[in-house]
Amino acid sequence: MTRFIVEADGGSRGNPGPAGYGAVVRDATTGELLSETAEYIGTATNNVAEYRGLIAGLRAAFALDASATVQVRMDSKLVVEQMSGRWKIKHPDMRPLAVEAQGVFPPGAVRYEWIPRERNKDADRLANEAMDAGRRGERWRPRERAAEPAPATPPAVGWGPSAGTPTTLLLLRHGETELTPRKVFSGSGGTDPELSDVGRAQAEAAAAALPEADAVISSPLARCRQTAEPVAARLGLDIRYEEGFRETDFGAFEGLTFAEARERHPDALEAWLASPDAQPPGGGESFTAVARRVAVARDKTLARFPGRTVLVVTHVTPVKTLLRLALDAPPRAMFRMELSPAALTEVAYYADGNASVRRFNDTGHLR
Questions:
Q1: Active site residues
Q2: Between 126 and which of 38, 54, 62, 311 could a Cys-Cys bridge form, CB atoms 3.0 to 4.6 Å apart?
Q3: Whether residue 299 has pLDDT greater than 60
């Protein structure tokens, strides 16, 4: 299980006065810095700013891995004791903030530890940076880190200044299964089919042609595992499995062709196609729910492998979701994308939050 350390702080120059918070997320095993955040929040008290820093740190950790356990370290005795349940929360401004913090992770996933101020220097620095930015009428921005060595492929050409070395996701759809040619709904809630003979040949062809990568991440479903294995073997890498990249659970549509789904569930199918918030009958997932977990998996991957190239072996819906998020396109744009088995798509993500789609549905390695 993933374990994070969240260090958070907040401050006010006047109490109440101009206030800001800062928070960092670290890997609890290695101490590696995974995320940092800060914000100027206007006029507030020290305690409100401290709680806001806590909430921001927990949300940043949740974005990296919603199933993680978290050790929160703060130099605010008040926040630590109140969130640990040992002190009552009497101030009306504190209660809703405490409830918000409690709701980020499931009960029992977060523990709190008081630390002296000198051990909370990073979060304190970020809070002061945010207050300084607010005084200048600006938003806090993270400091640039040292750039990674230039990638083998040339950077994307744009109109603005260089945004540094991107993190590149090579998105490989799994190879064919016996269900693929029949265009059957095959998601997370069905039979978990394995690759067909054609699909295995596609996986081998992809392994032989794909460029170098620094990591291999796969959906845990069998067809993706079997597609990832020959690539990982060629690269000499282990496969990291990520639940967030699994296919949609299509509920009652699982195992049906589109025509069969329309015949058996006409109203439900029409509603599902019309709204990203609609769920297939039988406990399926909406596109909104899928986008939420795919975005979390994406952010976790970007935080773990900054400036690197990562192969992600996944399914149709996650690839299309990542594409439309990168393009800032509406959910309905997914219905206008054709994605072939074992096709490769490439998206570069920059530290300033921008993304660049470099290729889509590339099947040249299968010819």
A1: 174, 247
A2: 38
A3: yes
